[in-house]
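User:
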Amino acid sequence: MNATDTIVPAEAAHFGTLAAEWWDPKGSSAMLHRLNPARLVYLRAQVDAAWDLDPRTRTPLAGRRALDVGCGAGLLSEPLARLGAAVTGLDAAPENVAVARAHAAGQGLAIDYRAGDLAQVAGERFDLVVSMEVIEHVADPAAFVAGLAGALADDGLLILSTPNRTPLSRLALITVGEGLGMVPKGTHDWSRFLTPDELTALLVAEGLDVVDTRGLAFDPRTGFTLSANMAMGYFVTARRS
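Assistant: Predicted structure:
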């Protein structure tokens, strides 16, 4: 399997059926809406640290290209555009891309959304590549990481997030999350979750250095927060060696 042929058709179809509700904060993607603030806090801290940016700047990504892989209907792509980046959003489900384009147009945001796999950006390089809660859904994680690394500019930053493969993640995301209808049934396959060591090994194999890892925790009272505990899920930031 090559570095771009990583889409699982059933996974793309599953998320495509959720497209119409993606921007409804009380709909099937409600947990993603609750997760997005923690994603942005982490992303902003890593960008500022990597490129020695002023944390008070409202558009720290001005003049930089960003690629959001597995962008869904644009929940992260739109904030990246507001931070100043020239954003390309890539998703396997055409239904998601259609919703993303329509929503961005309504917000007055110029985002280059494309349907398909990483072949859609072959030969292009991006200063920032992000892929949040996606690698656990692909057919070949090693090939997927190779594709992400191939899209990274020489001084680029790669940021991923994914659930950890632990008893806690099985309980929280599948038994409770899917069992109680907080997350659509069939969203997760626990056997596909990667541990931090496994994901780090894939990144290192592509010539990248992992410069930061951070846990993601959930509290019913406060929602998702960054944490030193990576038992449920985690973020990883990598750069070229």
